[in-house]
Structures are given as structure tokens and as C-alpha cells.
Amino acid sequence: MDTLNQSTIMQGGYGRVTLNLTARALVEHAHSEYNCIFKIGGYDADFRIDGKPYVLDDNSALLIGPWLPHAKLENPKGPMLALTLLLDGAWMASLLGLALPLRARLFPQPAVLLTPEVREQVNRLALSMTAGIEIDDNERECLLRDLVTALANTYSDLEEGQKHFRAERPMDSRVVNAIRIIRMSAAENPNLDDIASRVGLSRSRFFEQFKNCVGASPQQYLDWERMALATRMLSDPRVTVAEVSDKLGFSAPSHFARFFSQHIGLPPSDFKRGLISQGDGGDDAP
To answer: From what superkingdom does this record's organism come (predicted)?
Structure first.
């Protein structure tokens, strides 16, 4: 991995796994999946999770729960080679035999120290991502399951996660209606002020209630839905980047590429080239 543009991506019912070398910044964003990030090589990187600063280095990992806003800062020193897991909550619940609410915080701390066992599992999965045809998709997914199981055994606190979930406010019916509108019209990039009006809330009240109920802002939710559409379409080898840009209403492919890179850390063209596995259900993961 000797350039900033090289990446390897596998997708499936579990979500998405990415091995990527980059110094790019990521805008603050949030999503419904669990996000686990590990440094494989290169320079340390600075992150901001729920407004607090964290450093990802050789001895740590970031375990970010659903809808927890987070951002990666640009690293002027140089790139980091990172292994990133974007894990579907239902897949995790099935793997671990747990009844996880969709917004449960399985990992109470967003930054943890790596144990030797977890580091070994991380390295095995990262190595498999560069092995090409020497390792098939089933073997990679087995390594992923082993890693996620090790993470849960080492760092999870289900009781604390359920306590956090019970302490959250119940979902406002107007927010539920707004989410439905966003999902139905995400490709058209709907105006959030218009959605607030449609559900009977002022703009400020809408943003406040949405954040209280979901944990992320309406803009972050809309961006997540649009990224889900983008990654789904880009996973089809018959669809070009320009076509995806047009279908999502961007005025130029360069604007789409900027949006995509700011959320995932690599351009859409690199995303398409980097896909090594597209299992069942993987096209639903943003």
C-alpha cells in the first residue's frame, strides 16, 4: 500500500470492511451501524467523537456506537493505514446471540486499549484484505466474525448499553414522520426546512427534537441515507460514477466526489475499484 488512493473493500450482510490508506479529513457524520476503527500502519490520527477528542494509535481502537456523531481530522504529518468496520446491528445481534435495541451502545467507551488477542484478530483480517484470491470471501467473513466476537467479549457492556437506551427519550411521532419523508426522497436531496414545515415544527424545534430522538442531526441522517444510495449504486459494476452523481442530483461529478470522500475517506472511483467482495445484503450498508 504505497499510495493514498489504494483501498480494499468487502461488503456483505455484516455491513462493510475497508482497508484504506489516507490522510483525508472526514466531516462529522453519524450512521445506524457500529463503527470500529483500527490503525494498521502509518501515522496516528486525531478524531472527534460526540464532541470529544481522541487519538487513534498503535495501541488503541475506536468503537463508535450507532448514531454517535464523529469526525476525523486531517493529518498533515501523513496518512494512516486504517482497518474500518461498519457493522450492521442486526448482524451483530445475531452473531453474538444478543437482543440489541437498534440504538443500544454495546461499547460504553468509544476508545479502548487493544489486548494482544484483539490485535492478533485485527492483523489477521487486515492481512486477508490484501491476499487477493488466496483467501475467499467465506474465510474473510470468518475472520471478521472472530474479530467482532473478540471485541464483544473484551469491551462490551450490554447492561450499560441497555441502561443508556432506556434513558433516551421516546421517539416523537413528528420525527418518525420526518424520517419516513427523508427515506422516501433522499435521492432528491430534500430541503430540511420544508420537511420541518410538513411535520408541523419550526426549523429550530425540528432540529432539536430530531437530535434528541435519533442522536444525530437531520442533515447527518439525510447524508447517511444519500451515502447508502451512493454505495449501493456504486457497487453495481454497470453503473458509472457520473450516473450515480446524476441520480443523486449533484450538479457535477466533482461535487459528488467531494461529498462521498468527506464521508468515507476515498473517492467514489476508488470505492468501485477497491471492491473485492459483494456478498448478499452488502449493498444496503452506507
So the answer is: Bacteria
